[in-house]
Amino acid sequence: MDALHSLMDGLGTALTPTNLLWVLVGVTLGTIVGVLPGLGNPAAVLAVLLPLTLKLPPTTGLIMMAGLYHGAKFAGSTTAILLNIPTETSSVVLCYDGRQLARQGRAGPALGMSAISGFIASTVGVIALTFLAPIIAQFAVEFGPPEFAALMVFGLLLVITITGKSPIKGFISMTVGLLLATVGVDLFSGTERFTFGNINLFDGVEFLVLTLGLFAVAEVLMNLEEQRGKALLTIPKGIRNLLPNKQDLKQSRGAIAQGSVVGFLVGAIPGAGATIASFVSYTLARSTSRHPEKFGKGAMEGVAAPEAANNSEVGGAMVPLLSLGLPGSASTSVMLAALLLFGVQPGPRLFDNHPDIVWPVIASLYLGNIALLVLNLPMIPLWVRLLKVPYWVLYPAILVLAVVGAYSVRGSMFDIYLLIFFSVLGYAFRKLQIPPTPLLMAFVLGPSAENAIRQSLILSDNSLAIFVERPISAIVLLLALGVVGLAIFSRRRGTRLPTKDAVTALDDELESAAAQPETPQGDIKALPITPERSHP
Amino acid sequence: MKAVLERLGVVATAAVLATSAVACTGTASTGASGTPNNVQFIVDTGPGGGSDIFARQLIKIARDGKVLTTNWPIVAKPEGGGLGAMAFLKSKPGDVNLISAFTSKWIIAGLTTPSAPATLTDLTPVVMLADEIQVVAAPTGAPFNTMSEFIEAAKAKPGELVQTGGSPNSVDNLVALEIQKNTGTKWKYLSFDDGAPRITAMLRGDAQIDIGAIPDFADQIDAGKLKLIGVFSDKRLSDYPDVPTIAEQQIDLGEFPTHLQFRGIAAPPNTSAEAVKYYQDFFGKVSATEPWKQYLNEQGLVPEFVTGDELATQIKDFTAAAKPLVENMVANQ
After folding, report:
1. What is the spatial distance between Cα A113 and Cα A110, in angstroms, rounded to a whole number?
2. In degrees, to the nearest 5, what angle opens at C-alpha A332 toward C-alphas A329 and A338?
3. Which ipTM did the prediction report?
4. Which residues have C-beta within 8 Å of that of residue B177, sequence separation ≥ 6?
5. Is B80 part of the contact surface with chain A (CB cutoff 8 Å)?
6. Which residues of B touch A412 (CB under 8 A)?
């Protein structure tokens, strides 16, 4: 009850008109800066705007930063859904279903679902942080390399299960992703791998550059080829189609609940972060869904689950920061830096020593989320109208943003050449009907998996038993087997039913490829089913 | 609505283009001589990283103390832990508007990478600002209370105890290798990308020791979860007077200096004496301010102000100590 009391006090402190104003300013600024690729990474946004907040009183400054953080995060989802440009790693997974929904004219509902599930999940996150922090902190400490390795194996297995119609093509894509992930200086030996002696490759391939090439530029190339002169997407008429309907909400309930829990738990593990949380949650939603065949073709749960995880992760990431003084992810390490600049030393005793700062921060994280919902739901129609911009304005704008974004990550021309290379790769993938998303997922999960497995083997002197000897690791591996088994089972069941066969035939895993120009007006049932595209 | 949006789009695009144009001209317009007037501060870490915070803090203190009236933008060149920053400086010889914060990591990066495009000796060292005292931490419940007791424990179980840290090319692993060589012991080194998993590895019992800076462990020590078992310094720490130094424990560090980590400022090759003087004056003024001394103390940094030949010798000595170890490590891979 103490915690609840403190939270209420915190809310009281945070809820001054001035602070509320700064939360709104933060959310707005965060959203504006966040839609620009390169600056879209919430950690970068926080770092860039850090000096601005230092002019304010500590509590107000931190509250504004919470707003910035939420704004930037939501902006990342917006660009992923609307333009297929995931500006941060945790919104990659939205390119599966969010983008498909947008193609079907349901960009508005997808954005609305993103905001609503994010809001619900961060409510869960804040509540869990308030009441469960000490218990979860213990769990976070126990989660070492073998446990992490098990989680990553889980993640990679799931990538295979969601590759769609042609597992071989999905596997090819994943392998290229793993290969790209090995580029750089190896953590354990200091040896260079696939760097060709070029220092620009020492730290590996920059995620954003890969994404911008593989998705944004390649997509522009495809669209230019296929639908010259047409609008990129169709916008549904009428306000009703701009927000999620009752059925969307009903069908996403389970996904939001699952995403909230997964996001919070994964977020609490130092070194895991929102990306892994969103991947795990998405694949879990798909594997446990009653109609997994809809995933990748515009399932509302495919937006709801990862977005929930993405947002409750914030609460989770605050657990090790506030109870152990250890940053859980990139964004919390910037928060940590901010606390330090304000002269507040985070650590195990932060709650005791600075309750006047900690609780308002937690409260303001929550307020940031509310502000986001209030500001952005009415903004959705405006965002969606972005798609109405004629192609001759939109495409050059995307190209300019992609180039500027790629350059701005490290201020390096080399990254622009890489961008061109990945654009060509992405174009080739689409032509060969190889899905690009498994590549990106493997690229993100690969290094974590490799590091965790090698750390475990160092600890165990190369004995694989370590993965099953430790209880948490054994449980996660069991879960992985279970979920993969379930996925295989449901896939079989799905293909046996004749009615669904027609749909599965369309299960063209090219989730973001080959634009379908004849997109109908916001109706899933009217998906363009053309006979020549069915199974051979 | 559409018009508004288009205008917004134009404004946003223009803003981006303008920003990038400024960023480009910022580098392009820097003159090759004269007094620095448009300084960019290069750091080798991304936002929130060690050098980034150090540089931001330094500029903040300089501005608060009116030593600096303009703002020096911080530019991250994080490639290859110092290599990218060194290569960038090397590519701008004589540019008076560039400075960079270097650490001992830069010397080692130059040694471990045969293809390194630049090393610290290619650049103009300006001033050494601080030594970062390194300490050895262990979980409170560990059966040893000093580094020498840890070494004894490692002797009893060769190759079983675990030291956690970052890259094997970091100075904490190199000095550990030197100690292992000189005491005939062997223990494992467990690498993690970030600092947080290193701490949890110790709290969990996966690792027994970690060598790092005081702020890395201070909170855990206050909370009674970690303890210090050795200090790499000439004298004991005022905050932890019970912790013996490595020298007191008679542990042989070979050619290594007692201070393993340092932070200084370097400029491109061929920087004019006039510009070097300008920067030395500037950093001298910042070093004299109270907030700066206080900041260094909080971070476990010992103020230094070494310039000229003495600085060059310091860099040369450290390189000489690290070189054989690095070569040995590379040969064993």
Report:
1. 5
2. 150
3. 0.76
4. B325, B328, B329
5. yes
6. 79
